[in-house]
Amino acid sequence: MPYIPRDITEPLQKLTSQFPVVFLTGPRQSGKSTLLKHEFTSYGYVNLEDLDFRRAATEDPRGFISRYPAPLIIDEAQRAPELFSYLQVRVDEQRAPGSYILSGSQNFQMMRAISQSLAGRTGIATLLPLSLPEVRQPQAGQFYQDADDWLFTGAYPENIAERIDTRLFYENYIRTYIERDIALETGVHDLARFRNFMVACAVRAGGLVNYSDLARDVSANDATMRSWLSILEESYICFRLMPYYKNYGKRFTKTPKLYFYDTGLLCSLLGIETRADLRSHDRRGHIFENAVIAEFYKQRFHVNKQSRAYYWRSIRGPQKEIDLVFDGSGGPLLYEIKAAQTANEKFTHTLKSYLGENNLAEKSASVVYDGPDGLTINATQFTNWQDFKAPGCNNL
Q1: pTM (2 decimals)?
Q2: How many secondary structure helices (H) and strands (E) does the chain include?
Q3: Cα gap 123→136, rounded to integer Å
Q4: pLDDT tens digits, residue range 284-341?
Q5: What CA–CA distance (Å, rounded) separates 138 from 33?
Q6: Residue 336, C-beta contacts closer than 8 angstroms, at least 6 positions apart
Q7: How many other C-beta atoms are found inside a 10 Å radius of the C-beta of residue 150?
Q8: Which residues make Cβ contacts (< 8 Å) with residue 224, sequence separation at least 6?
């Protein structure tokens, strides 16, 4: 498979110049191992998925560190939590930046181990599936044919580079994720019910999180739904988008919306088997919205910046909603997201209303859609999804 250069490479190299340990996290098959092996060729490499390496790391961690000296990449490092306290001792002795790069797809285990043993010594970066600028590179092969291709194919590097059967790729991905990561690492025993839970989340993508509704659909309790949703978040399947309020404290006390990091995975969970099925699917608009918001996260994370992303919903009067709000230092930036190919003045109404009520400049709002790029209606810029750039990512 050809190597597709990743935008996070430079921020990752910067972290290795500042911290003795760097942790690269992200979902399974997002390209972490491939990136590290191509971009950090002066480092040794061990993968703890290999039983021999894992046994050495767990049974004799001190000997393992001596046998495999820094600089060293330790892939799937969560497989040997016994190693972390010994790494702490070694990095405190040497105090050399970039000594170890750890990677893993199980964020719930890695973050716990890092907070216990390597807090203050570790720089953290997140690698998500490919962003649009990354897919546009020649090494990725053909760019998406249209919006439906983008939504259905998703952005996992193997699926992009090989253009294998998308349906089979995601069916295998889901099965592997549940049977390996969930069964082995989380303590969840009812795997069939957990898969039903993932489907229930997919049906609600783009909607408000309602734990009681999820519990009713999956025949479980609210506490289990909260726990399982945290698992999906920590393994980079889903994320919650919080509401935007000027009062910062309120943002985390109100109801979030639920989205998936990859719409190919989302389509698979929804039972969408072809692009033709997607074109006529009643959730297509929600899937398009999900794709744009996930793209926002990818671009921000791949330059090692926080998302600072929210949605806005009116409290009083007729309900109004803005799909995406970036909480920038110069004031909020507003994005309306529409799957339509035709620009329409009505797409700007809520944006204009919010701008007027909050005394914001007209350039603070734009519409992301599937039509011609560069149109302006009601002083609002219309941007085609292919040309969408998250704030602070203009160099991508």
Answers
A1: 0.95
A2: 18, 13
A3: 28
A4: 999 999 999 999 999 999 999 999 999 999 887 778 999 999 999 989 999 999 999 9
A5: 21
A6: 322, 323, 347, 348, 350, 351, 365, 366, 367, 368
A7: 24
A8: 215, 218
